[in-house]
Amino acid sequence: MQFQRQRMRCDGGSFELSKSELYSSMSSEGVKSYFQRVNVSGIWKLQENTMTMLAAEIIGTAMLLYIGCMGSVGSMGFAPPALQTALAFGLSVNFIIMTIGHISGAHLNPAITIGAVILGLKSIPTGMVYILGQLIGAIVGYGILKWITPVELFNDGKSNSTESLCVTVVYPGLSNVQGLLIEIFCTCFLICAACATWDPRCSHLTDSVALKFGFSVTLLSFTAGPYTGCGMNPVRSFAPALWNGNWKDHWIYWVGPILGALLGTFAYQLLFTETQPNRKKSICLTDIKPVTVLS
């Protein structure tokens, strides 16, 4: 397989791109987002390969609920500490991004999709299809875990626990407003991280996106988990609530992440987005030359 790429310095010298530079420049959703944003006329049209991306989102979100919530089961041995639960979801995100990130972007979360639509990375109909797929995937993933785990073992192993496995609830000592603010700000931080990965200026760092984003989820889950369970993802909270019939304060896990997505996206746009990409005058693109990357 050949890619035609060569750089030339403006002083006349030239050098070829390394493999990592080639992969980074072609796989980064951030670079694509600058050159392939949905134009105004296409904002209400389904994007190409939307059905393939739908399948990826269904499978990816199912994996997130299945693996993440499995890491919270504590009836077989010992009750999982908070760090284990946080790592289960964070590393699940890492794994899923590596698996389907190149297909759909691995949003897995309506809040992420809302941010992508606002930035013009996804059209409105495609965003709606994404969210539908995420809902389906979450319900299926949690349902499979509930189906294969015996009822008497389907719990977090904590003797004083009154909530069903993986159901997000506000800590009893907090008010609904405080719980809502936790969800808003945590989702806002997560969306800012997503906007940064889509930023063209971050295109040279795409090799580690999966790992960095996974650990971002781990950090937020570990710190905010005791407050609200740190949903940050409406469908992640919806599936356990649906399967267990537990709707207490559930509205917080929709309103909070949606408001957080809006706040994070618009804040990043207002504070950090460049209207014109910076061009380094010392480096120019010149006539193409084949470079063998994969045989």
Automatic annotation (TrEMBL):
Transmembrane region(s): 54-75, 95-121, 128-148, 180-198, 210-228, 251-272
Family indicated by similarity: Belongs to the MIP/aquaporin (TC 1.A.8) family.
Species classification: Eukaryota, Metazoa, Ecdysozoa, Arthropoda, Hexapoda
Keyword check for Membrane: yes
Top-level lineage group: Eukaryota
One GO MF term attached to the UniProt entry: channel activity
Assigned GO CC terms: plasma membrane
Membrane topology: Multi-pass membrane protein
Protein species of origin: Acromyrmex echinatior
Protein name as annotated: Aquaporin AQPAn.G
InterPro entries, A to Z: Aquaporin-like (IPR023271), Aquaporin_transptr (IPR034294), MIP (IPR000425), MIP_CS (IPR022357)
Main localization of the protein described in the UniProt heading: membrane
NCBIfam families per the UniProt record, alphabetical: MIP (TIGR00861)
Subcellular locations according to the entry: Membrane
Keywords: Membrane, Transmembrane, Transmembrane helix, Transport
